[in-house]
Specification:
Length: 345
């Protein structure tokens, strides 16, 4: 049961959300930049782009939160959507609207909340840009203006993204249920099923554009030690942060996937070996350039990468194997490096 009433226009609102084809899609580097700005600007534990779905709130972008979705019934964002106006809760324990309610009692990590509605082009509320923290705080008029401006940038980017050709291609290729099965919940990247789905599509697209299909295997170095020293929560954060850095280092049209564990595969359409290696090096440097901030420590993470170009008449699976072999050469060669697998003769 929903503890928050449904909006009177819920059917139309849900249809508008479904039309955007944003639910259960990979994380977006632009939106991650906006939530990171909100996180740092307001000095809060969490900053989120939240889409309020039928029985859940799903996070298109998240900082400071490990889960991809939570129940709609325990959601301040649902109140934003219901009333279609900003919601500021400086202290849920004393706020007359929420003190003593199931929402306040069962979400102790969200004692402070500030959410701004995100609407579609017709003004239908779809979700929020929100910030939250376990500690109460004051949120003055200047803070409201800053959150409003960040929400404006977020909302208009969502409109542009919906209109883009890439979004159109995704809508044509996959249903929402298919997307859910191909999305890795932790990293918000395509999973192995997504990799296998996009592999022939990217191969065909490369041939159509008279380009080469490049394959990059990326493996986080010494990842077992991360779990041993910092626990699985620390390891999950490193995986999440690594995924963000990879996505920001590649081009919008490149496909970034989590193949399993600490192993990632990137599909990219390039002209030649040099261009492929440049992309791989951007990924390597994005991971290694700055320490990752864990709750109890800073961690200097590195990655090893193996690259291959799909050869004439070669199957994509065989090219993936060559990239994987190059990855192991990079690891045996000292790690934190990139190796290229020449095409077979």
């Amino acid at each position: 049961m929903l503890s928050v009433p449904l909006p009177a226009n819920e059917t139309e609102r849900q249809q508008a959300l479904d039309r955007l084809e944003l639910l259960d899609t990979p994380a977006d580097p632009y939106l991650d930049t906006l939530t990171r700005l909100a996180h740092d600007l307001f000095q809060v534990k969490m900053a989120l782009v939240t889409l309020v779905d039928r029985d859940r709130q799903w996070f298109k972008s998240r900082q400071g939160l490990d889960v991809a979705e939570t129940e709609r019934s325990l959601s301040y964002c649902s109140h934003v959507v219901l009333h279609d106006e900003p919601l500021i809760v400086e202290d849920s324990q004393v706020d007359q609207r929420f003190a003593g309610t199931e929402l306040a009692l069962n979400t102790p990590d969200v004692r402070f909340y500030a959410g701004w509605p995100l609407r579609d082009a017709d003004g239908m509320p779809l979700g929020t840009l929100c910030v939250a923290d376990p500690l109460p705080r004051q949120f003055d008029h200047q803070d409201r203006f800053k959150l409003r401006d960040l929400a404006y940038l977020t909302e208009n980017y969502l409109h542009l993204q919906h209109c883009s050709q890439q979004a159109s291609d995704l809508r044509d290729a996959l249903s929402r249920e298919q997307r859910k099965g191909m999305l890795d919940a932790l990293t918000q990247l395509w999973n192995r099923a997504g990799l296998l789905h996009f592999l022939p599509l990217e191969q065909a697209a490369a041939e159509h554009h008279q380009l080469r299909l490049g394959l990059i295997y990326c493996d986080l170095d010494h990842f077992k030690q991360v779990n041993d020293r910092h626990g699985h929560d620390g390891g999950d954060h490193v995986l999440w942060e690594s995924a963000r850095r990879m996505s920001s280092a590649v081009r919008p049209q490149d496909v970034v996937t989590r193949n399993g564990g600490e192993e990632f595969v990137i599909l990219t359409q390039v002209h030649d070996e040099q261009e492929l290696l440049q992309i791989a090096e951007r990924i390597r440097l994005a991971i290694a350039s700055q320490p990752m901030q864990l709750e109890d420590a800073q961690l200097q993470q590195t990655a090893s990468l193996g690259c291959a170009l799909l050869g004439p008449g070669e199957s994509a699976v065989d090219a993936l194997k060559r990239a994987d072999q190059a990855l192991y050469r990079a690891k045996h060669g000292g790690r934190n490096r990139t190796e290229f697998a020449p095409c077979p003769h």
